[in-house]
Amino acid sequence: MIELVSAERCIACDKCVTVCPTNVFDRGADGIPVISRHDDCQTCFHCEANCPVDALFVSPRTSPEPEGAMAKDADLLTDGGLLGSYRERLGWGKGRAPASSLAIGPPLRPGADPITS
Question: Pfam families of this UniProt entry (predicted)?
Answer without folding.
Answer: Fer4_9
